[in-house]
Amino acid sequence: MNRPTITDIARLLQLNPSTVSRALNNHPDVSPETRNRVQELAQELGYAPNQLAVNLRRRHSGLIALLVSEMNMFFNPSVFRAIEQEVYANGYHLIILQSNNTLIREQQNVQICRQLAVEGVLVSLAAEAQALDHFAPLLDQRVPVVFFDRVLTQNHSCSVTVDDVAITRQAIRHLAEKGHWRIGGLFGDPKLNITRERFRGFKQALQELGIPFEESLTAFAQDSEQGSQMALKMMEQHQISAFFTMSDELMVGAVQAIEQKRLRIPEEIAIIAISDGFAPEFYNPKITHIRHSGFEVGANAARLLLGVIREEIKNPIHVQLDCRLVELGSV
């Protein structure tokens, strides 16, 4: 049986649909007799209002959207968990839309946010997004937008990031302090600002330490499999004493390559990563890393967005979180 509508009730009672709508909402200009007839039939038919339509009319959906590049990253699950906890505790529900790192999907997701009348949007940008023009329709409608992790430097909305240059320099300095001067670097998609910043930090650290930069000791990879291939190629062409990886995915790839070469960590080769801290615990030895907490990123981004929605935050705030070195057994 189809879901009963206001039109169905109006037809059965021979009333105007607008009268039925007002009766269901207890409008004072509807007589008590008509209101009772409408509400009794609505209950008998099992009528329930289309809450989405109601929300769209009132511009209050109770929805917050999370726009992400992909679901399968090591970093993202803890981000999602923190955001969901924050928004749910404050009376909102979370919807997650994935771009698969493409601009067209991200543009479509922005349109979905408009159609659903979401009350705020959290964004980790797609790799193809090199400008923020496609978010203008949301901002024009005064829908708050907060960017996190994958951001652009020209961002004029609130954001949550880390100092990608500084944490990379910290990792390379730690390797050098442990006697490693032939360091291979594995980086993600070069279209991403976060990759460019971490690559810049890598080069800066080498320069500060007086280590010549060699382009052949760096590689860009899209995932752990490609990272493993790049690490193998690097080890075959160079005498490397340590790897730096800018993410958990690339750490996984580097460790696979090291195991394939039957090298012992840390006796024959060291490795350090920028990591959420979950994946390094599963290796023996555990992987030394710069802790970049996805949970902290997500929680701070959600709190910022809620503050903007409540109008407690009037001007853009850019939060830069601290990261710390976690020394385990791989260096």
UniProtKB/TrEMBL annotation:
This is Transcriptional regulator, LacI family. Keywords: DNA-binding, Transcription, Transcription regulation. GO terms for molecular function: DNA-binding transcription factor activity; transcription cis-regulatory region binding. It comes from the Bacteria. Residues 4-58 form the HTH lacI-type domain. PROSITE patterns: HTH_LACI_2. The keyword DNA-binding applies. Pfam families: LacI (PF00356), Peripla_BP_3 (PF13377).
